[in-house]
Amino acid sequence: METKERILHEALALFSERGYDGVSMRQIAAAVGIQAASLYSHYAGKEYLFRAILEFAQERFAETMHSLGLAADPDPQSVMELKEKDLQRISREIFLHLLKDPTAAALRRLLTAEQFRHSIAGQTYQQLYIESVLDSQTRIFKAFISAGTMRKGDPAITALHFYAPILLLLNKYDRQPEKEAKALAALEAHVNQFMRRYGRKGNKE
Amino acid sequence: METKERILHEALALFSERGYDGVSMRQIAAAVGIQAASLYSHYAGKEYLFRAILEFAQERFAETMHSLGLAADPDPQSVMELKEKDLQRISREIFLHLLKDPTAAALRRLLTAEQFRHSIAGQTYQQLYIESVLDSQTRIFKAFISAGTMRKGDPAITALHFYAPILLLLNKYDRQPEKEAKALAALEAHVNQFMRRYGRKGNKE
DNA sequence: GTCTATACGCGGATAGAC
DNA sequence: GTCTATCCGCGTATAGAC
Hints:
The structure is a homodimer. Chain A is an all-alpha fold. Chain A is built from 10 helices and no strands.
């Protein structure tokens, strides 16, 4: 990996643990194994390094969503082909990814922590972890409702009901890595109860 | 207000905007109108001041919950007397309080931002904004389900379905104070759809 | 591109007078 | 309890040699 990339990853790891102001350029350089002055050959300053991390976050997030079949600009056809069981798979995959993938978890923590201090970080956090996911889910549920797979209801609120608990569980189990099994059980219980309440078959209850 | 209290409130306001490491003791002193050295007559150091804020957060939160009829250690009788319509009122009141009350909003933002850096802040965040609320709501829904007011289902998951969207909406509209009306409309739509899905009368759909 | 050396301000904190 | 004065380390960043 090139030095510039190594700097970005080491900085991300440190920032996500101690915050932007809690990490010095010297410490980042030490983690990379170079002198602090050398960082300035790659990034014009600490702020520029931080912005590069924000851009990296957006790229990574888009890639992840795409690989899970949740592109920001999806093929309408592919949305129609999604089934209810895909929701179980997708929610589980996205949950584990955001919880355990070191880079994804570091980015999420960093954006969460810095959202109020740097307006760009706030916008990025909002865009990635709230709006883009809700939009994506809203499209899916709209298709489900049209197709009769799900009960009628505002698709945006339905997406909120599906996604918000996932985000809260992520938050809750973030600091308790030893309870991963419990986290997954809670996630599954959430999705199951959601299906019973929102799915067509749920009316039998 | 005593100097010690003024220090705590000014520090809270500054920390919540710029973070713990983003605010110096000199800046806090300037906001209060004294010299930095004088702060040490009230708090032994920056860390001690921060911990005092965390303790204050717990007290304030408990008071707020109590005034909304959501004590941490509730009278079982009072829980039974809650009605469905109380949910609308409570959710609206707690939402507006956490969103707009300056002290409550500052505490929430500060704890959100610092949760990964100071383990005590992380515990406090988790305790206040996740566990205590979910526990409280779980008790209420358990009572509702027993009383037949609500459909059967895991009360803990039901609480998750009720509270998680509120927390997400709080997060979403935190940086958009001009959209308060929209935020309240979304909150009401959430609670309404929740009622239709979970309430007894919802079966008619 | 990386190094050493260095500039210079600001950080938390303390001493001691009033 | 508040002030002035001060300590000293660490922060970001630059200059210039290799």
